[in-house]
Amino acid sequence: MSHAARFPxxxxxxxxxxxxxxxxxxxxxxxxxxxxxxxxxxxSQGCTAFGLVLLVRHFREAIPLQxxxxxxxxxILGGYENLEExxxxxxxxxxxxxxxxxxxxxTETKGEDLAGHYRTFRQRNPGxxxxxxxxxxxxxxIGGFEDGFASAVTGIVEQFAQPAAQTRRGQVNVxxxxxxxxxxxxxxxxxIESFGLTPIVLPDLSLSMCGRQPTEFTATSLGGTTIDQxxxxxxxxxxxxxxxxxxxxxxxxxxxxxxPTVFFDRLTGLETTDRFVKTLADVSKRPVPARxxxxxxxxxxxxxxxxxxxxxxxxxxxxxPDLLYAVTGFLNDMGAIVMAAVSPxxxxxxxxxxxxxxxxxxxxDVEAVARDADLIISNSHGRQGAAxxxxxxxxxxxxxxxxxxxxxxxxxxxxGTRDLxxxxxxxxxxxxxxxxxxxxxxxxxxxxxxxxACGGGGCGCSAV
Length: 464
Hints:
Blueprint: H1 23-32, E1 37-42, H2 45-59, E2 66-67, H3 72-77, H4 80-94, E3 98-103, H5 105-110, H6 114-124, E4 132-136, H7 145-160, E5 171-176, H8 182-193, E6 198-202, H9 205-208, H10 227-231, E7 238-242, H11 247-257, E8 261-264, H12 270-284, H13 290-310, E9 314-318, H14 321-333, E10 337-343, E11 357-360, H15 363-369, E12 375-378, H16 383-389, E13 393-395, H17 413-431, H18 444-449
Helix pairs in contact: 1-7, 7-11, 13-17, 15-16
C-alpha cells in the first residue's frame, strides 16, 4: 500500500468548524451495511452519542448503535469487563447476527489489546460461537472517516471470507467505499445486473439505509450484506473495488480467496463509467444493453449543454479524500477551475487531485481560500462559511442534515453524472438569469447551430 501524500496542513491552534469526522463513525457506517448488525463503540457514552446524532440527522433513520459505557475507573484499569458484559447483553436482548466493535480514543489511548480481548471472549463464551463478532481498531485521534470505514470492511473480510473450490459463473464482488451513498450503491447494482451478473456488495448500504419501513421495531440494521454472502465471495469471478481507501480490504480479500481485483478510483464521469461498463461487458461476455447506451448518449448531451456554464468557473471543494477526488475530477472534465481542494486527512488519493491549492484543513480554511470562488462544494457544515462569503453551497458528502433525501442522491454512472451536471449547472445558470427571468447572453444551442464561436464571457461564449 502506498504512503499517504503529504500536503500542507492547517497550523491553527484550534479547528473552529471541523471538516473531519472520526474513525469510529466511519466504521459504524460500514457495519450498518451488514444485515442484522449492531455496531458497538468501545468507549464512553459521549463518543457514541455524537456519532449517533450525526448519522440520524443525515439518513433520517433509526440508527442502531450501542456503547460499552466506559467511565474513568474502567478506562484506567482496563475495559474488558465492560466489553464482555456489553456483548453478552446485546446478544441476549437483541440477537444480532453480527456485532461490530469499534474502539474510540478513550480505549485506544489506554492501549486495549483487541486481538487478546477477542480470543478471551471466545474462550469464555463458547455458547456464543454462532454470533458473528468483528473487532476494528478505530482510534479517533488519528486518521478519519475513510480509515475507520476501511478498517471495518477489512475486519469483516478477514473474519468471514473463505476460498471456494470452484468459481460461480456470473457472480462478482463489489467493495463499495464510503464515498458512495446508498443511492450510488443501488445504481452500481443496477448496472451490474443489467449484464446478467449477480453482485455481492460489501457493505450494502442500499439495502439497510435506503428508507425502508419495518413492520415492527428492530434493534439491529435492517438489511445489508449477510455473513453467508461474505463467506461466498471466494466463488466470484472478479472483485470490483471503488475508492482508494478500499485497497487494504481488497488486498485482504484477494489474499484469502485468490479472486482477481479490478480497481476504480471514481465512477463519476464519462470515461471512468465507460471503463466500468466495458469491464462488465468483458466479464459477462454480453453486449452493452441498449438502455445503458441510451444513458450514455444522454450524459454526452448533458455535458455538451452544460459545459458552457461550467467553463472557467472557480470552485472550492471540501470533502473526504475519495469523494474529493471524484468531484474535482468531474469538475475538471467539465472545464471548471478547481481553485482549492480541502481534505480533512492526508490520503494517497490526494496525489491525483488537480487543483490550484490542495491542503488538509477544515471549513474555516475553505472560507479563507474560497473568497473569489463561484461555488463551494461541501457538506452541510460548510453552510455558515459560504453564507458569510455570499457564495452558493452545493451539498455533497456526509452529513447533509438540512436537505431531504441526501442518502439516496446518485452521482455515479451515466445517470448519476448527468444529474450532477444538471444540479451544479443550474446553480450557475440561475446566476446568469435576470431578476425578471430573462437570460443573459443567448440560447447556446441555437447560437452554435448558426456558427457562433466561443471565447469570452462568463459562460464561455463570445456571441450575445
